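Consortium newsletter contribution from the modelling node. Members have asked for a concrete example of what our holo predictions look like. Here is one, prepared for the zinc ion complex that several groups have been discussing at recent meetings.
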Amino acid sequence: MTMSDWSAVTRPIPVPNELTRPFWDSARQGVLALQRCQACGAFQHPPYATCVKCMAIDLKFEPVSGKGAIYAYTIMYHAGDRRFAAAIPYASIIVELDDAPGALLAANLLEAPYTEAKVGRRVEVVFEPLNDDITLPQFLLARDTT
Ligand SMILES: [Zn+2]
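And here is the predicted structure:
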């Protein structure tokens, strides 16, 4: 099984906004930081102005471990966005992090055949710089299973 060829893909660059800026600033430094409610302790992603669990507005970004498991996945056989054509087929995955249950991160599974994307597979974060400003958190299959 061949791996998706991401080398020929020019990714769209995410544009940070007021809510997501701390997430991108941390990622650029190789740290995964997610928004956490300081009232009830729940993590959430993507960031919102209020806690989706308790509606509190006291939210802070806290670093989390990059370890987690595939929560859901989609195998992309067609490029809705032509920029991704070179990587077809590839796995788009939703990851739930060990430290932040309930917060779901969308990413790609890199350096593995798309057939390796299975619900429950252990993954760990890797940081893919797109430019000087934006570094995209992506995932690899975990080297160990802990
Ligand atoms: Zn809350």
